[in-house]
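Reminder: ligand-aware prediction takes two inputs, not one.
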Amino acid sequence: MRVVELFRVLSVADVRKLLDSLPVPSRRVEEVPLLRAAGRVLARGVRAPEDVPAFSRSTVDGYAVIARETFGAGESTPTLLDVVGEVRMGETPGRRLSEGEAMYVPTGGMLPEGADAVVAVEHVEVMGTLLNVYRAVSPGQNVIFRGEDALAGEEVLGPGMRLRPYEIAYLAGLGVREVPVYAPPIATVLSTGDELVPHETRDLRLGQVRDTNAPAICLLAEEFGARVRCGGIVRDDEDAFARAIGAALEDSDLVILSGGSSVGVRDLTLRVLEERFRAEVFFHGISLHPGKPTLLARVGERFVLGLPGNPTSATVVFFLFGRHLLARLAGEAVFAPIALEAKLRRPLASVAGRTDYYRVRLVREADGWWAEPVLGKSGLLFTLLGSDGLAEVPEEKEGYLAGESVRVYLLDTRQVAVPPPRKPREGLAARWTEKEE
Ligand SMILES: Nc1nc2c(c(=O)[nH]1)N[C@H]1C(S)=C(S)[C@@H](COP(=O)(O)OP(=O)(O)OC[C@H]3O[C@@H](n4cnc5c(N)ncnc54)[C@H](O)[C@@H]3O)O[C@H]1N2
Ligand code: MOO
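Here is what comes back for the chain with molybdate ion:
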C-alpha cells in the first residue's frame, strides 16, 4: 500500500499570506456601460472630467449672505440686511451679492458670487425687503462648494475597487458613461464522489446522496463575482477525474472541486493533479476545523481549489479562502471581509494549534452583539441555516469562556469599502467638507 504523507498543512495565517501574495495572471479589461458595472472591479483609476458639483450651492432653504456680516447676530441683536432678489432652481443668480445684502436661495440653488454662507429660513424674519438675521453663520456654512465631490482631473476612484451602487451613483454624477473593468474570473465547480447524484434526483437508492456542495459553491462563487460553470458530478475514477479536470482547466481560471481531498484510498485529487497535470501544490491541508483537508494547486496559470467533501466544511472553506482567491483573480486591490466583535453566549472549545470556526447566530442586545453558537457536525448543513457568521477561535487559543469576545466574520458577501484616492479639499471647502450638517 502506498504510504500517504498525511498533509502538507499550513496555518490559517499562512494560507491568508499565501493568497495575498500569490502571483495571478493579469486580466482582460473591458469597457462596460456604467449601470452594468455594479459588482465589477475597476481596472484603471477614474479621473473626474469636470468639477462636481459644477457650482456652489445651498444645503438649506435660506438666505445667501456674507458670513462675516452676521457675526454677533443673536435673538436680541439681529443683523439687518437688504433682500435683493431670489435664486431660482437651475438658474444663475443674475447678480453679485454686495455688502449689506442677502438673496433668497432654495436648497440646491446656486450661491451668488460674493456670498459665502447661507442662513436657514428658521433663523431669519422677513419684513418687506428687509431681513432680520437672528443667528450668525460662519464662512462655508450651509454651502456645498464647487468641486467638493470631485475636482476636474483628480483621480476619484482607484483601480482594484469593486464597484458598489454608491460608486456607480457617484460616477453617474460625474457624467461617466462607461467604465474599464476586469473580465470576471471563470470558475468551474465539480463535485466528486460515487455516492453523489444531481440534487434534482427524486428517489434516492440507499447509499446515494444529493449533491449539495455544487449548489452552495456555485451560488457563492457567483455572488463573489465569478462567472460560474456548474460542471456536474465526477465519479471516483482516475481517468474520469483527469478528463473532467483537464476539460475544466481549458477555459477556467479556477477549478473548484469538492470531495476526494482526504487521505482515504479513494481520494484521488492530489495524485491526479500531481501525476497527470504536473500541478504545483501549495498545500494539502489547513490547520482549521471544519475543513482541514483543503488543497490549493496551480496548473500553468490556472488554479485548482480542492474543498473537503463534508458540506459544511466545503462551504466554510470556500467562504474563508475561496472568495479570497476569487478576489485576487478578479483583480481586487484588497481582500478584507467584514468581521465584528461579539460576546459569546456559551463557551467554545478548541485545540491549540488549530483555528476553529463555529457557526453563530448574532443577537443585538443593549450592551452590543452576542454570538449564539449553532453546534453540529461538519457533515450536516443545518448549522448554516439561520447562522449570521463564523466565530473564529484562533490557533493560539484553547477556547473561549462564555461572555468572552470573539471575532465573527459575517456570512455574506460584504467587504470593507476601499477608500478612494481623493485629495483633501482646500480653503472653505476643507473646513466644511468633513462636517455633517
Ligand atoms: N482517517 C481520516 N478520515 C477522515 C479525515 C482524517 O483526517 N482522517 N478527515 C475527515 C474530514 S475532516 C473530512 S472534511 C472528510 C473529507 O473527505 P473528502 O474531502 O475526501 O470528502 P468525501 O470523502 O468525498 O466526502 C465526505 C462526506 O461528504 C459528503 N459529500 C461529498 N461531496 C458532497 C457533495 N457534493 N454534496 C453533498 N455531500 C457531499 C460525502 O457523501 C461524505 O459523506 O474526511 C474525513 N475523514
Ligand atoms: O475538516 Mo472536516 O472538513 O471537519 O469536516
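The chain has four domains: 12-27+184-329, 37-52+148-182, 57-145, 339-410. The two ends are 74 Å apart (CA to CA). We will return to this case in the review session.
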